[in-house]
Design brief:
With 115 residues, the protein is mainly alpha-helical. Helices cover 49% and strands 0% of the residues.
């Protein structure tokens, strides 16, 4: 980490507002498209220039490279409606398995109390 005696170094956390045209590309369809990949470096340069212009001394990419599935991102790499495929069967089976185990444990406790 760099040390500074003549100023307070500043940065930020989290993602930054995207340029309107880049945001429109992300909202238009699949995130990973040739057009998005082509436009990404320019959008990152835009946000870096804005940070420098605002006096931020430790700049970053504004999390532009993170995958976005919606306007509000509740987890960049999580899909809340995973497809039903062999690789995702554990995701679909886990809630049912927890319910079955919970009922089995509750049944065992009830049997012990009756004795």
């Amino acid at each position: 980490m760099k040390f500074s005696t003549d100023r307070i170094r500043t940065t930020h956390g989290g993602n930054l507002p995207r340029p309107a045209d880049f945001d429109a590309l992300l909202q238009a369809g699949p995130v990973v498209t040739a057009e998005v990949a082509e436009r990404l470096p320019e959008a990152v340069q835009y946000v870096v220039d804005r940070q420098i212009g605002s006096g931020v001394t430790v700049v970053n990419d504004g999390e532009y490279g993170k995958s976005m599935r919606a306007r509000i991102d509740y987890g960049a790499w999580v899909t809340y409606d995973p497809p039903v495929e062999p690789v995702t069967w554990p995701l679909w089976a886990a809630p049912l398995l927890f319910i079955i185990v919970g009922l089995w444990l509750a049944r065992g406790r009830l049997r012990r109390r009756r004795r």
